[in-house]
Amino acid sequence: MLLLVVTTASLGGALSNIREAVEESSDFIFLKLFTTSGSAIYSFATFMAFLGPLAGITLGFDAVSNERSQGTLNRLAAQPIYRDSIINAKFLAGSTVIFLTVFMLGFYISGMGLMLIGIPPSGEEVLRIFAFLLFTWVYISFWLALSIIFSVVCKHAATAALASMSIWLFLSLFMSLVASAVANSIFPTSGIAGFANISSNYSATLALNRISPYYLFSEAATTILNPNVRSIGMVTMSQLSGAIAGPLPFSQSLLLVWPHLVLMIALVIAGFAIAYIAFMKQEIRA
Amino acid sequence: MTERIILETHDLTKQYDDVTAVDHLNLSVREGEVFGLLGPNGAGKTTTTLMLLGLTEPTSGSAIIDGMDCVRQSIQIKSTVGYLPDNVGFYPDLTGRENLRFTGQLNGLSPQVCEQRIDRLLERVDMTYAADRKAGTYSRGMRQRLGIADVLMKDPRVIIMDEPTLGIDPEGMRELISLIRRLSTEDGRTILISSHQLYQIQQICDRVGIFVSGKLIACGPIKELGKQLESEGSYILELSAEPDDGMLEKKLSALEGVRSVTRQDDLIHVDSSRDIRPELMPLLMDGGYQLLHLHLRGGDLDEIYRRYFEKAGESSEHPTAEKKRPGLLEQLQKKRG
């Protein structure tokens, strides 16, 4: 519900500003629906990066602890089913819901956008939108897996919710501060040596930032939705010389964020694996 | 009742860090009997039931139900063994009927069999009137009865119940107990009940096992356990007489074989190593007392329970120290006498 409202709001914001955006460049108008933000409202992609985790956490934080406090977990475990099917089902159900929600929102934006701006998306744009929605799905699934871990480990649903939320807040808001602080202390950019350190400072910040799935997703989403993003990370002047300014084809954009996707999928699998092992080793008692 | 052993454990042990919850348990339950597992809280009853179901892995030893190993074949075990946990829970958003249907589906019943069985079982546990209400609105007694229906959904041969009578009002308790009894007599199911509530167990169990800190210290039919105690020379007489002047107690303790005379409100408890009833009457007559109440304890489970716990150096409700004191007093008195 919250996501739907937010999506509508961001769509409104995008529509109000799309005229200006189009004046700047007339390529890939349809994608701008997802990335353009209104004066007071963030764009859809930003909202997904920021509020998507909340949706994942909501679906997962009481998955196991709720069963336990209701007293249904041991009744369930006493049925002739394997124990892992319980945790598998929890994750698959949540992940399916996320998939449906994300794609529904994506289609909602596209449909409304189509009606309101009247410009059909090109084939490449459709592909890019699908890729973006898939990324979003994987990204939110990570948060689902994380909150399921906490719901297995914590006795109370409230503890699990708070723990997941604090991780979410830390990774989305404070990780960049921490990253630059750490990078600055390792490679100080002031003083005589500072000049030499600029490059390593930047890559250290970037590497630390990329620990956070929030940053990974934002980077990937920008690259996918904005064909004009040609590179992530640092580009030197010598690399830039001779480059022709122009949008990248879809396959090249995808190639650029392929490591991001792999890493995010790995994070989801790792998160789920931890939850799975914790659950299987746990005692089931009232 | 047949003599076939359906449930067996061999040296079943469960170790939690430095606590041994269940210590080399050897238990055998015959097919079709109602077996009561008695013991104070924390004696390891729940751990035992969980190990029988394969929900907890034993540290060592094995448990076998109907020829199947409880650790290796836990799926088969779980389809023949029904488990009613204490404080059984249901999904509050689903109705009672939907909750049962879910269990039926988990057990792989076909929809037709499932519906038929739901109707029959709801009728049996007298829950038809509330079947289409949300389970979140049920009272504890209703949940417990729905729990029994839930266990019966899979048509189990063995039913394990963990504290089934806890927190239920007397009327509900009576119904529940007759229901459990009928499960054994009418359907021939084997039932294992773990509980610390003695009177209910006494009413329905064929045999009981007394369980203290992970060890089974006594096992057998209730009457036999009583006799076992009597043969060890322990008689407890409960009496009250008029006039209640305090002289009676002195006279009683002067009798041969009397170990202690204690007073609880109006009742005088006489602990003796032999039956003093034949001498009691003349004693009362001479003193001009009128007998108001006389009861020889020892045959009921309460006494058996207490005795065994004392023997094991444990108490049913209180920490060890409190109950040891009367034991020490008795010893002192023994030395004097």
What does this structure look like?
The complex is a heterodimer of chains A (about 290) and B (about 325). Chain A has helices spanning about 1-25, 30-35, 45-60, 65-70, 75, 85-115, 125-155, 155-185, 195-210, 215-225, 235-240, 250-280. Chain A has one domain. Chain A is an all-alpha fold and about 290 residues long. With about 325 residues, chain B is of the alpha/beta class. Chain B has 2 domains: about 5-220, Rossmann fold (3-Layer(aba) Sandwich); about 225-335, 2-Layer Sandwich (Alpha-Beta Plaits). Chain B contains 12 helices and 14 strands. In chain B, the strands form 3 sheets. Chain B has a 6-stranded mixed sheet, sandwiched between helices. A 4-stranded antiparallel sheet of chain B has the order 2-1-4-5, with helices on one face. The longest helix of chain B is centred in the C-terminal third of the chain and has 17 residues, at about 320-335. The model of chain B is unreliable at about 315-330 and about 330-335 (pLDDT under 50). Chains A and B meet through α5 of A and α2 and β6 of B.
Tags for this model:
heterodimer, A: 286 residues, mainly alpha, B: 337 residues, alpha/beta, Rossmann fold, Alpha-Beta Plaits, 2 domains, 6-stranded mixed β-sheet, 4-stranded antiparallel β-sheet, 12 helices, 14 strands, 39% helix, disordered C terminus
Strand fraction of chain A:
under 5%
Class by SSE composition of chain A: mainly alpha
Report the C-alpha radius of gyration of chain B, rounded.
24 Å
Task: Describe the main β-sheet of chain B briefly.
Answer: 6 strands, mixed
State the end-to-end CA separation of chain A: 34 Å
The assigned structural class of chain B equals alpha/beta
Low-confidence stretches of chain B: 314-329, 331-337
Which second-level CATH architecture of the largest domain in chain B applies? 3-Layer(aba) Sandwich
CATH class placement of the largest domain in chain B: Alpha Beta
Q: What's the rounded overall pLDDT mean of chain B?
A: 78
Rg on CA atoms of chain A, Å: 22 Å
Mean pLDDT of chain A: 79
